[in-house]
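> forwarded from #structure-qc
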């Protein structure tokens, strides 16, 4: 099921399937959030729906705090965004990629890192209408999230990158007329590897593998024709067996060292996620104590010259 706010909904698709959502939360009357699993190297797309097919709106897509797409949605039921137009006829797909860490002190004071690293955010903004520019649309360059210092890691081990451009249908730019100042609906998808979501209790554990039903007699059966097998109590113990186990030393493996680094990063991120959940719970408890009824502001539509693309 997609994230739903009234008659509007959004979901993420990967490998032609809707990604499962966990820990869905209604943050306020116009913001809803959840967790989704990310898999390195997988392309994905953002899909939205208006059950009434009557809305005229802009749909903005943010990846890790970067505004990567703005789509024009005009009185239709569904729309989607699968990447960034690098040229009028080529689109670079969204891809889950590894977050590159470094211990280089030159990156220690990098202030470009967004607090939304590890988050896909979709905003819907009402407009009165659109005018077409009759000009093929393509997006300005979207900066890649490069190496960040280990001490600055704020979110998971993945980020959103752009894959190799693919041929796409030419789309034309649209300029919104009478756009609201603020979005009326916000959908947030926090993404992490499934194993990390499971380790933090956000996603249920995977089903255990089927048990081996072989009888013990089969496992301990003598493999040798003379009846002397590994479980035979009469098997003679040789000095070769003793010396081999006592003196053979395994060679160090570089892969083992890399696995140790990956495990450390996994544990550090697991601890960070637990700390963020504690902080969020504290903030929610404090907010409940301080809730006051406020008058909703009236937003007067303003003209905008921002060009968007028709993604419906």
């Amino acid at each position: 099921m997609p994230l739903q706010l009234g008659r509007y909904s959004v979901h993420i698709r990967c490998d032609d399937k809707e990604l499962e959502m966990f820990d869905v939360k209604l943050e306020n009357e116009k913001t809803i959030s959840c967790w989704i699993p990310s898999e390195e190297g997988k392309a994905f797309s953002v899909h939205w729906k208006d059950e009434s097919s009557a809305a005229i709106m802009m749909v903005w897509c943010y990846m890790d705090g970067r505004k990567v797409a703005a789509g024009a949605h005009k009185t239709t039921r569904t729309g989607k965004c699968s990447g960034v137009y690098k040229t009028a006829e080529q689109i670079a797909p969204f891809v889950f990629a590894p977050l590159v860490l470094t211990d280089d002190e030159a990156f220690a004071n990098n202030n470009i890192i967004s607090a939304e690293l590890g988050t896909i955010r979709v905003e819907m903004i009402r407009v009165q209408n659109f005018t077409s520019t009759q000009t093929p649309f393509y997006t300005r360059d979207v900066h890649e999230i490069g190496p960040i210092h280990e001490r600055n890691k704020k979110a998971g081990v993945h980020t959103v990158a752009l894959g190799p451009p693919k041929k796409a249908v030419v789309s034309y730019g649209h300029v919104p007329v009478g756009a609201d100042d603020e979005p009326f609906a916000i959908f947030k998808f926090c993404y992490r590897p499934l194993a990390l979501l499971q380790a933090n209790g956000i996603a249920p554990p995977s089903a255990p593998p089927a048990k081996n039903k072989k009888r013990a007699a089969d496992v301990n059966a003598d493999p040798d024709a003379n009846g002397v097998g590994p479980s035979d109590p009469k098997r003679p113990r040789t000095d070769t067996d003793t010396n081999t186990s006592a003196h053979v030393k395994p060679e160090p493996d570089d892969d083992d060292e890399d696995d140790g680094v990956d495990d450390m990063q996994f544990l550090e991120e697991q601890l960070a996620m637990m700390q963020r959940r504690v902080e969020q719970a504290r903030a929610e408890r404090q907010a409940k104590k301080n809730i006051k009824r406020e008058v909703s502001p009236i937003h007067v539509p303003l003209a905008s010259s921002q060009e968007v693309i028709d993604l419906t």
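QC bot note: Confidence is low (pLDDT under 50) at residues 225-250, 291-305. Helices lie at 194-199, 216-219, 239-247, 254-289.
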